[in-house]
What we know:
By secondary structure, this protein is of the alpha/beta class. Helices cover 33% and strands 18% of the residues. It is built from 8 helices and 8 strands, in the order E-H-E-H-E-H-E-H-E-E-H-E-H-E-H-H. An 8-stranded parallel beta sheet has the order 1-8-7-6-5-4-3-2. D-xylitol-5-phosphate (DX5) binds at residues 8, 10-11, 33, 35, 66, 139, 141-142, 144-146, 175-178, 195-199.
Amino acid sequence: MAFRIAPSILSADFARLGEEVRAVAAAGADLVHFDVMDNHYVPNLTVGPLVCAALKPISKLPLDVHLMVRPVDRIIPDFAKAGASIISFHPEASEHVDRTIGLIKENGCKAGLVLNPATPLSFLDHTLEKLDLVLLMSVNPGFGGQQFIPSVLPKIAEVRKRIDKLGRDIWLEVDGGIKTDNIAEVAKAGADTFVAGSAIFGSKDYAATIQQMRAKLGVL
Length: 220
Ligand code: DX5
Ligand code: ZN
């Protein structure tokens, strides 16, 4: 299985955002996770398409845009134009989930659906075959640096089963509280893509932290 590590810039130094993205790219990251918050769907406010467009030329890494905004449809074309590779959204933030998935794809991006810790997997019942990525939240969205919620582990295993049954290359990403000491357990449950904000940007040596994460994944 291919594993991917996606540093979340939410925990980066926002005064030096370009340098931070360059640093994680040099440190061996696979994706740049870009958290968009609106102070409405979640109680925090971050960055939008302008910042996404500014970061696009900084590295070759795909931009993994995680939208925590409601409504969501209006802003999707803007992120596609700003260079997003993947756009993920929360079903609670969309009036018409199937339409939003279609809109992301029409705009040339890969589509992801994000499920909060208490959001049921039934949202995947009629959507999974259209998705490129399922993002399971292992914290409640809104802030970096929160504790991993262990009850998401069986949920990861269940989604892994559904993806394998379907037999399509759908990424299974987990977001929130991922550290070097729990990444192996999350991988064992079935995840292949790992968002890590504070664990990477809060460390002194980004490359060493990413290497430690890969080492933990390698010993599975
Ligand atoms: C939370 C965000 C996460 C956050 C993860 O709403 O979606 O991407 O940055 O941060 P850590 O890895 O510190 O839990
Ligand atoms: Zn995120």
